[in-house]
Amino acid sequence: MKKKFLSNLILVLLLNVVIKPFYIIGIDAEILKITEQNSPGSYGTYFSLLSLSFIFNIILDMGVNNFNTRNIAQNNQLLQKHFSRIFSLKLILSAFYIIILLLMGLIFELSAKEMKWLIIIGFNQVLVALILFIRSNLSALLLFKKDSILSITDRLILIFFCGYFLYSIANNAIITIDFFILSQTVAYLITVLIGFSFLTKHTQLPSLKWDQLFFKMIVKKSMPYALLIFLMSVYYYSDVVMVERIRGNIEVANYAHGYRFFMAFNMLGYLFAGLLLPIFSRLIKEKQSVLPVSWLSFKLIYFFALIICVTVWTYKMEILNWRYEINGSSLLHSSETFGWLMISFIAVSCNYIFGTLLTAKGSMKQLNILAVFGILINISLNLLLIPDKGSSGAAFASAFTQFFILVFQIALCYKIFNFKYHLLSIIRIFSFTILFITMVYTVENYLSINWLEKIILNVIGGGIIGLFLKVISWDQFYSLLKHDKSS
Fold first, then answer.
1. Selection from 395, 394, 301 nearest residue 355 by Cα
2. Do 43 and 31 contact (CB within 8 A), yes or no?
3. CB 258 within 8 A of CB 334
């Protein structure tokens, strides 16, 4: 089992760290570049509608996947019994989700074209939810390799399909938002079919089965978790919708320029959370101290996040100009937005650690209350800043909200788990922060090399400083992996 876990972990890291960021920066960002050149504001409209669909995404799950993974993992024989029932529940939730999106479209008075896009985007989200449900069954059956392959199948299809039209055919008129979202539909449908084929050896194809008591039981158990995800989605994604409503779709495109990179980097924290949840859950169940693992995780993710944040922030204009070929006031405004997004990246990354720890503890009430305050702060700041600052104001509001959440999550962890301060470790982290920022400033102002070489030098230098100050070590990272394998 340990060997199987380690091989799967390496496969998941390789696939997610390579494939998904490549899709975001190589395909999605290129779509953004071309569609904004051909039809300014079109990608902004798409991005706003996509964010709107994300806000209500929890309706498609309601915690069902977590319930299903845990239940089937403990009792494989229940797959035949529960598969059709949960599939039926998913269809009911999907119908409710589409209705909610249509109502939001009517409330926002979307045009016929925008409503069409919203419906297709909503259907795509339904397919994504179905893929995640299939993957929850594969994971529960310990079919890790198939689960890992399915996790990137849709992105691989889009890389090859969209990549062909983007880079092989010299006809940018083909590249439209309609082309992009329908390409996603095809990719998701193929992935669903592949997923069902993976499960055919273990269960029959799903049929419709109505079981009201079963549905109520699952939804009731998962409601606190579902509420938290919904509240977090509001302050994560509402800023894009508000920018579009207040300043228009072209302003949203300025936000999206940097957000594509932010999402690629955010894969790091997401993978950390997936790795840490079972570790924290096991430690809490066995009444062992979570301090060593949580402190080690924090140091590791802060190390990576700071290097990424400071380096990218320093060369934000060069990066955006290289990727999107924008300049002038558009480049200046987009880079300012990008800069605030990268600052928020540090808080978002660290929130994955402490939020996961509190989730493993079951502190849902505290997390939900904190999320409500996050919404109030985020929306208030957006209403105050977006009319004047546009996308940069929204990015600042996001950064402020994420750091607010982080401070109170750390405070909750110290209170609930009785954390103790490690003065030497704090001094090391503070020293690493100061020395790395100083090094980046020196490289930028006193070395006559191009910006890409400076980025490489900063990353290498940051790693050396971190190892020298013992902020990180390979032995510590390996011990984290060993801890997870033993759990």
1. 301
2. yes
3. yes
Q: Would you tell me how many other CB atoms lie within 10 Å of the CB of residue 81?
A: 13
Tens digit of pLDDT at every position of the chain (487 positions): 444 444 555 666 666 667 888 888 899 999 999 999 899 999 999 999 999 999 998 888 777 766 666 556 556 655 666 677 778 888 889 999 999 999 999 999 999 999 999 999 999 999 999 998 888 777 667 676 787 788 889 999 999 999 999 988 767 788 999 999 999 999 999 999 999 888 877 666 666 677 777 777 777 777 777 888 888 888 888 999 999 999 998 999 999 999 989 988 887 777 777 667 767 777 787 788 888 888 888 888 899 999 999 999 999 999 999 999 899 999 999 999 999 999 999 999 999 889 888 888 878 889 889 999 999 999 999 999 999 999 999 999 999 999 999 999 999 988 888 887 677 888 899 999 999 999 999 999 999 899 999 999 999 999 999 988 888 766 655 555 555 544 4
Single-letter code of the amino acid located at 331: L
Which residues does 123 contact at the CB level (< 8 Å), separation at least 6?
98, 185
Closest CA to 128 of 51, 64, 185: 185
DSSP 57-92: GGGGTTTHHHHHHHHHHH-TTHHHHHHHHHHHHHHH
User: Which residue in 138, 176, 184, 130 sits closest to 157, CA to CA?
Assistant: 184
Calculate helix-pair angle for 474-486, 291-314, nearest 10 degrees: 130
**Do residues 323 and 452 lie in contact, with contact meaning Cβ atoms separated by under 8 Å?**
no
Residue identified by tokens 């801890």 is 483
Q: Are 87 and 265 in contact (CB under 8 A)?
A: no
293: closest CA among 435, 55, 481, 22? 481
CA distance 453 to 447: 10
DSSP string, 126-162: HHHHHHHHHHHHHHHTT-HHHHHHHHHHHHHHHHHHH
Give, as one character, the DSSP assignment of residue 200. Answer: T
**Residue listed under structure tokens 């140091």:** 299
Task: With beta carbons less than 8 A apart as the criterion, state whether 94 and 163 touch.
Answer: no
| Count of CA atoms in the C-beta half-sphere (13 A) of 49 | 29
Widest CA span of the chain, in angstroms? 70
Q: How many CB atoms sit inside 10 A of residue 430's CB?
A: 11
